Amino acid sequence: MSRHTATPVFEVDNLSWGEGGQAILANINANIASHRFTGIIGPNGAGKTTFLRCLSGFYSPVSGGVSFLNKPLANWPFNERAQRLAVVTQHTDVDRSWSVEQLLATGLIPYKRWFQVNNQQDQDLLTAVLNQVGLADKRQRHLATLSGGELQRALIAKALVQQPECLLLDEPTNHLDSQYQLTLMKWIKRLGISVVASVHDINMAARFCDDLLLFKQGKLLAHGPVSEVFTVANLEHLFDHPVRVDRHPYHDCLWMNFLEQERHHDQ
Ligand SMILES: Nc1ncnc2c1ncn2[C@@H]1O[C@H](COP(=O)(O)OP(=O)(O)OP(=O)(O)O)[C@@H](O)[C@H]1O
User: Which positions make up the signal peptide (predicted)?
Assistant: First the structure.
C-alpha cells in the first residue's frame, strides 16, 4: 500500500469484478495518490485494463467500491465526473474523417448545454492544448492523415480539453515507436495532474512513473513508490521468471532485465 498522506485521487476498497461467475479482479485495496504518475504493470491478462475500467466507472464493481475525489464513483453526476476525470482507452473509436479541431471540441461537451456553441474562450483553450501537445500546425488536418503518435497525442489532447484533475490512460504508448514512446512518457510526466496508466514496458514505467501498482492474475501484488516496489522479489513473483534489477547507467533509474532460467546470484 502507498504511504502517501495527501488526499488520494482514488480510494479502492476491496474491489472485485468478474463476468459470468468468473473472478477477474479480486479484493483490490489501494489508495492512489493525487498529482502523481501511477503506472499499472503486470503480465498479459493480469487485469490492468479491467482495473482501469473500474476506475473510470465503465465497469461497476461486483463487490467493494471505488471513490474518486472522496465521493463514490457511482454518485458523480455524469457531466461533473467528465469535467474531472478523462479516459483514453486503447481502442478509442473515433471517426477518422474528423479534423483534429473537431476531435478536441468533443472534450468541451461536459461543459456545454444542448445547442450551446463554442465561444472565443473555447477556441483559446483548444489553441493552448494544441500548443501543449505540439499539434498546433495540424489543427485542421483529418485524423486519418496523422501518424500513430500524432493521433495518440490528439486523443490525449481531447482528454486534456476536458480540463480533468485525473487522466486514465490504457497503454498510451501502444503501437508507437521507441522515439514516440519516450516523447509521450516525458510529456505525460510533465502534465502535473494525477495520471493512472497501464504501461507494458516496465522499464519505461520504472523510469517515468512515481508509483506502481503490480497486478498478477487479478490480484494486486504490491503498490507504492517505484523505489520501494520495483524489487527483484516483487518482479520475479510478478513474471514467474528470474530477473535482475540495476540502476540504468545513463538515466539513473531502476532497470530490470530478465535472466536466463539459471539464476545469477551476483546481485
Ligand atoms: N468482459 C469480460 N468478460 C470476460 N472476461 C474478461 C472481460 N474483460 C476481461 N476479461 C478477462 O480478464 C482477464 C484480464 O483482462 P485485462 O484486459 O484486464 O488484462 P490486461 O492486464 O489489461 O491484459 P493485456 O496486458 O493483455 O492488455 C483476461 O483473462 C481477460 O480475458
Answer: none
